[in-house]
Design goal:
Blueprint: H1 6-18, H2 23-32, H3 37-50, H4 64-75, H5 86-96, H6 98-103, H7 105-119, E1 128-134, E2 148-152, E3 158-163, E4 173-181, E5 193-198, E6 204-207, E7 215-224, E8 237-242
Helix pairs in contact: 1-3
Length: about 240
């Protein structure tokens, strides 16, 4: 197999990062990584694309039943005793492992998180994807004409933005993201709300509790470095994208 082919490297890296490359194929891929710069680069690219989306996943506390199944898997029948006397002994056993749990803390957390996910699978609603296109159709913005993509978690608490192509800004300039409120009949239009400055050449994670609250569209304006000094858009609106629920 020619691992120097970019298409093949990209496909394998996507499966590896997403976790769908398993068993012997996954072990073979990991063994190849140290010797193949193209594979390593493809893995980094897919991590940059996918990992920010984990911000949309809420942490879940494992139930007692999950802990019991983990103990059964690790320690067999000894962990399944239901007698009253077994409870203090089990608690003492776990306290005796405190040193080892501390030593392998990161690995333990990862293993437990995976066990909880497998024991309590739950569907994760798909994010809402918003395409921000140039506000002036036909305007020559160079690479910037490709626009931006924003992915909003289904609960509206986090969003990931990324330019379709890298956008080069003049020194001292920034792109600021705005939430455009939905028009309400018989009421004056509300002013857009700033969601902060976003990267022109990479991924930006935006975390708020009300990203979808009364928001009809997203807009990107060109502002001084660090964002608008007034709390309102001071520069031209470059990109606009309507939220389709």
């Amino acid at each position: 197999m020619d691992y120097g082919r970019r298409e093949l490297a990209d496909r394998l890296a996507a499966q590896y990062v997403a976790g769908t490359l398993r068993g012997r194929a996954r072990r073979r891929f990991e063994a190849l990584l140290p010797a193949h710069a193209l594979l390593r680069g493809a893995v980094r690219d897919w991590q940059d694309r996918l990992m920010p989306l984990t911000a949309a996943v809420e942490p879940q506390a494992p139930s007692p039943a999950v802990w019991k199944r983990i103990e059964q898997r690790l320690f067999g029948a000894a962990a399944t005793s239901t007698s009253a006397a077994a409870a203090p002994a089990t608690a003492g056993f776990w306290r005796g492992l405190a040193f080892w749990r501390g030593l392998a803390g990161i690995a333990s957390v990862a293993a437990v998180a995976l066990a909880v996910l497998l024991a309590n699978p739950s569907p994760v609603p798909a994010p809402i994807v918003v395409v921000l296109a140039p506000a002036a159709p036909g305007a020559d913005l160079g690479p910037a004409s490709a626009g931006f993509v924003a992915s909003i978690s289904a609960d509206g608490r986090s969003m990931v933005t990324r330019p379709v192509q890298q956008v080069k800004l003049d020194p001292g300039r920034s792109l600021e993201l705005w939430s455009v409120p939905r028009a309400k009949p018989g009421q004056p239009a509300e002013a857009p709300k700033s969601l902060g400055v976003v990267s022109a050449d990479g991924t930006t994670v935006v975390k708020r509790s009300d990203l979808l609250a009364d928001t009809d569209a997203l807009a990107l304006s060109l502002e001084p470095s660090g964002g608008s000094p007034t709390g309102k858009a001071t520069g031209p609106i470059l990109y606009v994208g309507k939220i389709q629920r």
